[in-house]
User: What shape does this take?
Amino acid sequence: MNGVYRTSSPEETGDLGRRLGEALLPLPGCTVVALTGGLGAGKTAFTGGLARGLGIAGRILSPTFAIVNEYEGKKRLCHFDVYRLKDPEELFGIGWFDYLEDGVVCAVEWSENVAALLPEDRVRVDIARGETDGERVITISGVPEREKEERAK
Ligand SMILES: Nc1ncnc2c1ncn2[C@@H]1O[C@H](COP(=O)(O)OP(=O)(O)OP(=O)(O)O)[C@@H](O)[C@H]1O
Ligand SMILES: [Mg+2]
Assistant: This one.
C-alpha cells in the first residue's frame, strides 16, 4: 500500500482512501493516519474513502468546526481536523489520548500543525497538486507491511 499514486478526480482519491482503509482493517491496535497537503488538497475526499474502506456507511462531514467526528464501522474512525488549533497542545485539551484505543483509526487533517505530538509509527498521507487542476500526487508511507510477515510463516 505504501507508494506514490496519481489521481485525476475526487472519486479516484476516495477510492485510494478506501483501499488504505481496507488495508488497515486486519491491523491490531490503533492506527493514526496523518494527512498533509494544504487547503483543498483532497484530505476530506481521501478520508471519505477511508471511511468506506473501514465499513462505514454514509457520508462523512469535514470536522473543521467540531475538530473531531466519530463514526462506527468494522473499525471506529475518529476524524480530526486540527486546522483551527491555535496551539498544538490544544490537541491534548480535546482528549487526544482518549481516542487512541485498540480497533480505532484516527485520521488527522492538517497533521503538520501537530506533527511533533503524533506517534512516530503513524501512517502518512501527503497530497500534492499535480500539473493540472484535477490531478493529485498522493504519497502513502508508514503502512506496516503484513504481507512480508505472512510470507515468512
Ligand atoms: N484528484 C482529486 N482528488 C481530490 N480532490 C480533488 C481532485 N481534483 C479536484 N479535487 C477537488 O479538490 C477539492 C478537495 O476538497 P477536500 O475538502 O477534500 O480538500 P481538503 O484537503 O480536505 O481541504 P481543507 O484544507 O479545506 O480541509 C474538492 O473541491 C475536489 O472536487
Ligand atoms: Mg478537509
Observations:
- The helical segments are 10-24, 43-53, 90-93, 96-99, 146-152.
- The chain has five helices and seven strands.
- Residues 7-10, 12-13, 37, 39-45, 62, 109, 134, 136 surround adenosine-5'-triphosphate (ligand 1) (CB under 6 Å).
